[in-house]
Amino acid sequence: MPRSANKVSRKLRTDAAKRLDRPFLGESLPLERIWRRILERRLRAKLGAKVSLSITDNTHTMISFLRRRGEFRVRLHHMFLAAPEPIVSALASYLRGGDPDSSAVLDRFIHQNRVYIRRVSSAELRARVPIEPKGEVHQLQEIFDELNRRFFRGQVNASITYARVPKVSRPRQSIKLGSYSAESKVIRIHPALDQSWVPSYVVEWVVFHEMLHHLNPAVVKNGRRCVHTPEFNARERRFPMAHRARRWEQRNLDYLLRYKVRRS
């Protein structure tokens, strides 16, 4: 790229950084509308399709989209407003098919620009999440408290709840039995585990796994985010029935995928 083009590119990014240092005000500012339309046109040119772009100030989801009747309805965090050409190309590739390479490029960009993500306290985020640890069979808070005492000396300061999952008419293709949000410090367990035929040691293993994420945060190596580090894996092996629980999950995955959300 010519030197002058590099200077222009750097100036665009610098100007955008200065603008993004202030709180995001969305479409109330004419400048925001102009940058959104420019990015919308850039994506439209690369995708060869109609694009409807919305800019957000989300704290968790940086990219989301829906493709309907040949139109891309895209929601992007405002950090993308002044994205350089390689990032816009990766965005278009990701929207078109979600290939791993473009996803990795976007992950690195988001990590490098995380300073523009609005900070929300863990307490505020946790207050937004309905905490429902009581189950019909397995009581999550009791399981959490016992594991915290036995394995972690009470060091895991997190909340635990059964996750709210959407109703589906067809069997699921995949299922996430547990998750941990470092931002809100909330562990979510899939309600498919709250069934009488699911052994308690399986639920305990899933909860134990998510508790480890609280104490072993993700690290970035060579531009890639790693959540299961060697240290994490070594600590997970401390759970006495980890191998048995993993084997049970593999043998019973089809039954878990057929779980139907109970009517409230």
Number of domains as seen in the coordinates: 2
Q: What is the strand content?
A: 5-15%
Characterize the overall form: globular
Distance between the termini: 60 Å
**Biggest pleated-sheet summary:** 3 strands, mixed
Could you give me the name of the CATH homologous superfamily of the largest domain? Metalloproteases ("zincins"), catalytic domain
- According to DSSP, the number of beta strands is 8
| CATH top-level class of the largest domain | Alpha Beta
SSE sequence, one letter per element: HHEEEHHHHEEEHEEHH
What is the architecture of the largest domain at the second tier of CATH? 2-Layer Sandwich
Kindly describe this structure.
The chain is of the alpha/beta class. It has a three-stranded mixed sheet with strand order 1-3-2, with helices on one face. A three-stranded mixed sheet has the order 4-6-5, covered by helices on one side. Strands 7-8 form a two-stranded antiparallel ribbon. β7 and β8 form a beta hairpin. Helices cover 45% and strands 14% of the residues. It folds into two domains: 114 residues, no CATH class; 136 residues, Metalloproteases ("zincins"), catalytic domain (Zincin-like, 2-Layer Sandwich). The chain starts with a helix and ends in a 7-residue tail after the last helix. The radius of gyration is 22 Å and the shape is globular.
Keywords for this entry:
264 residues; alpha/beta; Zincin-like; 2 domains; three-stranded mixed beta sheet
